Structures are given as C-alpha cells and as structure tokens.
Amino acid sequence: MGQELKFRVPLEGEEQSTTARAYVQRAWPQGSAKEVEELFAQGAVKVDGASLFKPDQVLPYEAEVEVEVGAGEEVYGLPEAEALLWGDGWVVVEKPVGLKGSIDPEDPMDPVLFLADMLGIAREGFTPVWEAPAGAGGPWLLATGQARAEALAGALAAGDVQSTWVAIVRRPLHATGVWEAEGAKVSYAVTMTWEGIAEVQLSVAFEKAPERGIYEGVLEALAQGGYPALGDVARGGFAVDGGVRLRLGALYGGEDFANSWPSLRSWRPSIPVCPTPQAFQKGVKSTSQVRKLEVSARSLEFLEAGKHPWVLRDKHTGSIEGMEPGAPVRLVGPRGPSGVYAVVDGTGEVVARYWGNEAEAAQKIDEEIALRVDEAVAKRGELYREIGSTDVFRVVHGEADGLPGVLVDQLGPAMRVTLTARCGEGLAPAVYEALGAHDPDVMILAVEHVRDVREAEGKLPQAQVVRRGGGYLKAGGRLVVKESGLKYWAEPWEGIDVGFFADQRANRLEAERRARPGQRWLNLFCHTGAFSVALARAGAKTVNVDLSKRYLRWLDENLELNGFGLEGHQNEAVDARDYLRRAVDDGEVFDGIIVDPPTAAAGSGAFWSVRKDYQALLAECFEALKPGGSMLVCRNDRKRSVGLRELVRAAAADAGRKLSEWKEAGPGPDYPQLKGFVEGDSFEGIWVRST
Predict the structure, then answer these.
(1) DSSP character string of 318-365
(2) What are the structural domains of the chain?
(3) Rounded distance, CA 589 to CA 566, Å?
(4) Which of 511, 536, 489, 652 is nearest to 594 (CA)?
(5) Please, which pLDDT band fits residue 160 given cuts at 50, 70 and 90?
(6) What distance in Å separates the CA atoms of residue 238 and residue 245, rounded to the nearest whole number?
(7) Can you list the alpha helix ranges (DSSP code H) found in 439-575?
(8) Which range (19-28, 65-74, 241-250, 328-337) has the least confidence?
(9) 251 Cα distance to chain centroid
C-alpha cells in the first residue's frame, strides 16, 4: 500500500548542501537505495510541483517535496525502549525514534511484541493506546489488553485523562494562541525559541476520538492549523534529522496520572531550519558605531559622579526617536563627547540609563550582557551552594548588577525575569541566552512591569515562557519554593507579586532566632504569612492581619505545607489600623511584632499611605508590644523625606516608650544597593527592642 510523503526542505545554514536523494532517504528510511533511485528515474519525486530526475541536485530552502512511496523493508530487531511508568493494565515507555509505532499481532517478529517480552508482559492483547509513525519518539502509552487500550484512548479523547504535548514548529508570531483544525482545536504556548523555530506546549480538544489515536490526531491538527511539526514528512513538516518533533509532555487526571517528562537534549535540531522572522529580529547587538545622545551638564555630572544612574528628560536632552530601547549611546554634554555610555530607555521621563565608562562595553554590548549576568550569578554563589534548602532568591538586581531595567529571580525550578523599563526589553534576549548558558535545563518566565499595575486598567501583567529548558510548569499553576528549609507556595504566572518576598530572608531567620516557644507574635500586613511560618517553626503563636482573605487562606496552606497545624495561629481579615486600635483598647500585648506595610493601599475606611499614616500606626504598635519585646519595622517609600530611625524614634516617643536596641534589617546581599539610588532599593528595615 502506497504512502504519500509531503515535506519541506529546512534551512541548513549559510549554504544548502543536502541532495534531493538524501532528503527522500531521510523521509523514507524503510526504502532501499535502489528503490529511492527508481523513484527519481520514474519522475515520482516532485519538487515544487515539477518532477525531479536528478537525485544529486541540492535542494533550496523551503522547497516542497512530494512523493508516493511503497512499504519498503520492515525493520526488525530488539527495541531499546525504556519503561518510564507502570499502572493498572498500562505502561508508559520511552519510544525510540525508528521503532514502529503500531503492532501486527500476526507477525511473531514484530518489534513491539519483542518490547512486550522485554517488559515481562504477555504478548496477547499487548496494544498501543495510540499509533505513531516510526519517526516519532518520546513517552508512549501501551495497554496490556485491547479493551484497556480502548478505554484509555477514549478517556484521552474525552479529556477524562488530560494530556499535554510538546512540539517544535515554525515560530508563530504570538506567544500564545489557538490553531483551528477540522474537528479539533489546538491551544498553544511558546516555551522556547531558536531563531525561526519554536518549542510549543499544546493542549488539544477533539470533537470526537481521532481514528488513528491521539498522536496522529495532534499531528493532523497541527498541520491543518498551518504549523506542522518538524519531521512530520507526511503533512508538510520540515524534513529534519532525528524524527518527528512531537512528544507527550504530561499526563494527569483520571487513572491517577500525575506525571510529566522533559524533552531530551537531542530534541533541538542541529540546523537553523527557518530564519528568524523579521518581527523577532530584536535585541541589542554588537556594533562599532555607537550613536550619540545630547544631555545637559547636570545630567552628565550626576552620572560621572555616580550620584544617580538615570538620564531624566530636560530641555537640553536630545531625541531618542528611531533608537531601539536598550541600544548603547555615548553621552554628549555641552563641552562635547564624554566618556560615559548609557542605554536608551524611554520609560516615562527616563531617557537613558547608565551603562559604563568603557567604549568596548558599549560596542560589544551583547558580550557585556553575558559577562554581567555571569558576574551576578557568581555573586550568588553561596546561595546556589545552598539551593537544596533555599531555592528562591534574586539573581540579577537591575542597575546594582549593571543590567538596568532587568530583575531576575530564582524561583524553585524556574527563573522569572521582570522587565521594569523599556531598556530591559532590548537587553532581555541576551539576558535569556546568558541565563540558559548558566543552566541549560532552567525554565525561564518573563513578565513586563514597565507601567504601574494600578494604571493597567485592572489587568495584571501575565508571565510568558521564553525558554522551557528541561522543566515543566502548568500554565497558571503554582509551585513550591524553599527558604531556609521551609516550603512556601508561589504563583509565578500573574502579576508582579508571586506570593513570596525573598528580600526578607534574613529577617525571617532573625525573627525565628528571637522568638521563643509559646510566645505570641503579631504579623501586620502579613501577606501570605512567610514570617508566620518561620515563627511557627520556633514554636511561637501568631496573630496574622491582612485585608485579603485570599492571602490568609494562602498563609494557612503554607503552614500546612510544612506540617504545622493551624491551632495557635489566628487570622484577622481586617484593616491593620482597625485591629491595632481594638487590640490596644482591649489591653492585648505581644512578645513581638512584624510591621511590613505596602507603600499605599485601599483600607477598610481611609486610604493607607505609608508617608502619612505610618508614625501613628507604629505608636500603637509600641503600645501593644510587651516591655523587652522585639519589633521589625520595614518601609518601602522611594520619596521618603524622613529617615526610618527618626520615624521610629518619634513613634516610640508618642507611645511613651524607650528603645534599648537598634539593628539594621535591610535586604540580603542578593539585593545590592547603589548609594543615592532609592528607586532600586526593595525596602529599608530596623529591628528594635522596647523597654
């Protein structure tokens, strides 16, 4: 029985060198050399619609090849499949590329029957849950009986057992979307890109069960949607070495499936396949011609003296129109070109941000970005050595690490990049590449935070997967991170707040050191309760105050995640000011208090402003603090006019209390600070003890 092959020729590099014969042999490995020669002699091989009789002709990029082939020679031998997972009447194996993806129970030499022998399963009834071409590889579900296979296939098609698939396709223009096909809908999310191709995570909904099983159904849906999988030589995919780039990524739901499988390192093709689409040819690159930007004498003075790393727009500032965000520029003052280089920004009134004083660092900016990422990672070496107990911390801290507008956080098995300025968007591609070189298996998410969330019409920024690596995170799902041996839930996909502030790591350890079993601590503005979890390990009881009931539920989940009961931990979903007034009136006192308020927020009555309301709140905190008790006072106010010590001292005086201890309590070394650059500080903090 004949088979129609239809595929495209991939881009091999600077020059094409592969012959038509080699491509047909790649697409039809079952065919003998003689059979392939006969196809050309008969004019059966058509290239862009015309018969090709010269098998040694080198084919150009994207040429379309069509040919009808026969069955060829059956491949026999012992398969090298590896069992990945066992269940009730089924097994998942790692199918090698080249192993036939269907079974002939009448052929005693069938390689899939040999697979049953190797697994210790009876040949009779051993059945693939889905058929796959010989060129397919990856996790493959097989059943020990025909009825079991049909039941599993039906559960997959109906969605009772959910599956996630991973494919490599021509790079789509959008990071997420839906491809429509006859009888199917493919939801995709780009997880990694290489020039003109992309790895995509797929979820496919079928109107009815595909006739040849879910694998062939997904391939057909991709092709109909206009994005055939690489290696799918039956449906117009690029004919690459290494087989079909579609594999099962995860099974979950019914049958107690809860498993995911990363892609193999050989997954990525060794050739470009497609050129990078014009829409994605972005990111700063090395250049010998660094453009110039006129600035005022005052702006230049601030940068040269290290007083502040931003160039703010004034009447002397030149235009950045036509300049790409992140592109290097040499600053020119009233006296001519300076030795200061910046990167173009354009976020609000910020025209550019300081880059350095060396021409080479500007000219070879992509190499410089990689160097600065490496230096930032090296500075966190101690944290990486302790990653078994702490896997959530800041890796790159913007301007303080020489990468303006870019924040990078280690978040368990993933890295999350937050772009806080337009220049960061230009630097980002080189940052992603450098992070991937540091850890080839890491999954990288990116989220833009150029605009204030409050100005975004109620829509929180959404993180996108820019590099999948060897990891798997369900879109919209949660993950567990660890700090000092404790576990916490984090949500990496939506907004800027992932539910955990790693900059308070040292203060949580200090709170745990100060607390004693049976003590009662107050956690104001408690968020998701990370301080309360640390205090629980010390044996302390807590009262947790936050307006958000969702955060308080999250706090309980964090306690339970660590095996701590909820008894002794009281949650209050009220305005912190209202709770404190009531506590003071009722004569309640606490052994310790954590105060880490937002800069500004809606309250149950009046709006909260750290600048206007903090001193009065702290005075009431001192009234509720036992003599000898500890209090952590934190503040995040970039436009502060009063020092934190002065503010705390005034609040203590208002409450008639004296202070016996002061201890600085700022963020850890993974959040470095630049003198005079308060915009880059995450918070300031002080531990005090009251007499």
Answers:
(1) PP-TTPPTT-EEEEEETTEEEEEEEEEEEETTEEEEEEES-HHHHHTH
(2) 3-69 (3.10.290.10), 82-274 (3.30.2350.10), 291-363 (2.30.130.10), 365-481 (3.30.750.80), 501-690 (3.40.50.150)
(3) 21
(4) 511
(5) confident
(6) 10
(7) 505-514, 530-537, 549-561
(8) 65-74
(9) 21
The pair of three-digit structure tokens given for residue 564, joined into one six-digit string:
């701590």
* Separation of alpha carbons 103 and 477, rounded Å: 38
Please state, in angstroms and rounded to a whole number, the distance separating the CA atoms of residues 344 and 292.
10
Q: Going edge to edge, which strands form the sheet with 392-397? A: 392-397, 406-411, 414-419, 443-448, 464-467
* N residues, the chain: 691
53 in the Ramachandran plot: left (φ > 0), alpha (ψ -120 to 50) or beta? alpha
Cβ-in-10-Å burial (0-12, 13-18, 19+) of 332 comes to: middle
What pLDDT, on a 0 to 100 scale, did the predictor assign at position 458? 52
Collapse the DSSP code of 454 into the 3-class scheme (helix H, G, I; strand E, B; otherwise coil) and give the result. helix
Residues 551-560: contacts with CB within 8 Å, 24+ apart?
A: 551/526, 551/527, 552/526, 554/489, 554/499, 554/528, 554/529, 555/526, 555/527, 555/528, 555/529, 556/529, 557/489, 558/487, 558/488, 558/489, 558/528, 558/529, 558/530, 558/532, 558/533, 559/529, 559/532, 559/533
Query: Do 592 and 630 contact (CB within 8 A), yes or no?
Result: yes
Quote the pLDDT of residue 608: 84
What is the Cα Rg of the chain in Å?
31
Question: Measuring CA to CA, which residue among 243, 248, 235, 249 is closest to residue 269?
Answer: 243
Instruction: Look at residues 632, 690, 685 and name the one whose alpha carbon lies nearest to residue 660.
Output: 690
Type of residue at 479: L
Angstrom distance (rounded) from CA 179 to CA 225: 5
| pLDDT tens-digit series, residues 515-552 | 999 999 999 999 999 999 999 999 999 999 999 999 99
**Rounded to two decimals, what is the model's pTM?**
0.66
